[in-house]
Amino acid sequence: MISYNLILPEIFISLSIMFLLIFGVFKKNSSKIVYNLSTISLIIGLGLLLVFSETYDNYLFLNSYKIDNLSFFMKLLTILSGISVLLISYNYIEKIKIIKIEYPILILSAILGMLVMISSNDLMVFYMGLELQSLPLYVLAAINTNNVKSSEAGLKYFVLSALSSGLLLYGCSLIYGFSGSTNFDVISSNIGSEEFGNIFGIIFILVGLSFKISAVPFHMWAPDVYEGSPTTITLFFSLVPKIAALTVFIRFLYVPFIDLFEQWQSIIVFISIASMLLGSFAAIGQTNIKRLIAYSSIGHIGYALAGLAVGTNLGIQSSIAYITIYLIMNLGFFSCLLMLKRNDVYYETINDLSGLSKNHPIISLCFLIQLFSLAGIPPLAGFFAKFYIFIAVIEQSMYFLAIVGLLATVVSAFYYLRIIKVIYFDKPNDEFDRFNSLSLKLILSITTIILVLYFIYPGFLFKIVENITFV
Fold it and tell me: Going by C-beta distance under 8 Å and a sequence separation of 6 or more, which residues neighbour residue 344?
């Protein structure tokens, strides 16, 4: 007997999408109502997730859908991130004149795909969730039809993502051919470490997943798409898809292919090192803040993958803790960026921040905290995120990976500190407009407080994720 309570969030969000789409079509000038209802739908979905959560593993739909501690925590992060993005998006999309009923519905659809990905225990269910996530993201990247760069971003993302999806599906077919099943648990019992065909299947699937999290060398789309997309969509790109993709990385590597650990470990180590180094060095020459954040996100995902390369529960838990703190930092940073508006024009280059502290001391202080945390400066939360990763790596004597990570951290500190120098020491520009969005101020305040006070109880996140075990 299927316990449908466990998938009530997915059921409710899918019903909400269908209702809102019909409602928005038949009721004229309903974009604001649809927007508010979409936010409420996610809040109700979050409530259903919390009320009907279970502490033990549950399998649904012939063991193809898994509800466990990992899926609960990652769904919690996904829905919270989606709510935050919708809360701080409204004023921005209204000003750049893209208020459409499709905007919040597409975000809901992408989140539904991510929830399916997070609980997938089968290659076909995972691929269905991946496409349900990706298709709305293509449209969202190009949704600002008044901007040529937005259309370009959507097209680039679509073409490259379609290529990566094809490679991923080819990898799935190889795995099915060698194991005789698409279910993760059956694959685990059917394959042997001597079957080299499985390694090719793993490589193709890792290529597809690496594209989704913009890991090197499959990162080429990220800077252009981040720059061209509307800023709130760039925020969505930098936050939510990474949660689902990291969850699939964990499930895929540690359930069906844990016996092939030695073979895939070197691949993950290479991707991690390449991402950390490129993310650190390529961002130095950037002048557009969104492009800089694109390279920054490439570097940060490298640290998260370093935890997965370790092959221990501590490594998995460190990666989950890292991505959680990264979400908080990025949410706060983009909240600051969305306040840089003058005469209804949003600014997004580093020079636009020149002397910001003279006219806007509070926003500047928030920027300072977010940037110091992204750079990993103690005692902010970003320092502890990296600390967890380095401890997990060093415990397994992977000293080279730890040294590269430390060097990348030092290099990346340069471009974060350069922005702080521009904010506090350069000649001030004209004053930006006063911002009246209560939700934007609230989210900025919450994220900043969390980053500052995290050092009081740095083990808090590990208390939450300590039950997530695979090894």
Answer: 95, 433
